[in-house]
Amino acid sequence: MKQLNLSLAVLVLAVCAAFPQQSLPGDTPASKEDIQHLFEVMQIHQQMRQVMDAMTKQQSAMIDETLKKRYPQTSAEKIARANRMIQETMKDMPMDAMLDDMIPIYQRHFSKIDIDAMSTFYASPTGQKMIREMPALTSESMQASYARMQTQIDAIQKKAEQIVREDQEKPKSIPAAP
Questions:
Q1: Which end of the chain, C or N, has fewer beta carbons within 10 A?
Q2: What is the widest separation between alpha-carbon atoms in the chain?
Q3: Of the candidates 58, 80, 56, which has an alpha carbon nearest to the alpha carbon of residue 68?
Q4: pTM above 0.70, yes or no
Q5: CA 126 to CA 162: how far, in whole Å?
């Protein structure tokens, strides 16, 4: 009897191994269309534009401060030119292509069930409030962290300048005569 049970168990395992495993419903990958729908519900294109605008303002402020600090002789016109360059660069960001680049990333990290749940949440009143408040949250967060970021940037610049000075101060070695 034990031998029959053992043989039956081996047979069941062999049959299971012979057939490909079926994915669980939660493991079903999200389609490109599922993720595009999520992006629409989340108004992600508009959010990205708002974040880019906030980043542009923040970067302009940082560049203004950095240029004035590091190059006090820099004219207001040159600083304004640098700011225009930043604005043009950020304005020309290929948003649609960037969103297309994000689709396979979402597909790797989220199943169809995950994407559907997020779409449901972001379509809800709370999800819509989150979408409305996100630009302000992002902007305020960037402002709150600006001083800390600038301190870090200053420290990095000082370390980099020290490395350059050390290299410049080292005597050049004279090659040995053959």
A1: C
A2: 95
A3: 80
A4: no
A5: 51
What does residue 111 show for φ and ψ, rounded to 5 degrees?
-85, 175
Token digits for 83?
């700011």
Q: Tens-digit pLDDT profile for the chain (178 aa)? A: 444 333 333 333 333 333 333 445 557 999 999 999 999 999 988 888 877 887 788 778 887 888 888 888 888 888 888 888 888 887 778 888 989 999 999 999 999 999 999 999 999 999 999 988 987 887 788 888 887 888 888 888 888 888 888 877 776 666 666 5
- Cα–Cα dist 60/83, whole Å: 6
| Per-residue DSSP letter, 26 | G
Domains in the chain: boundaries: 24-146
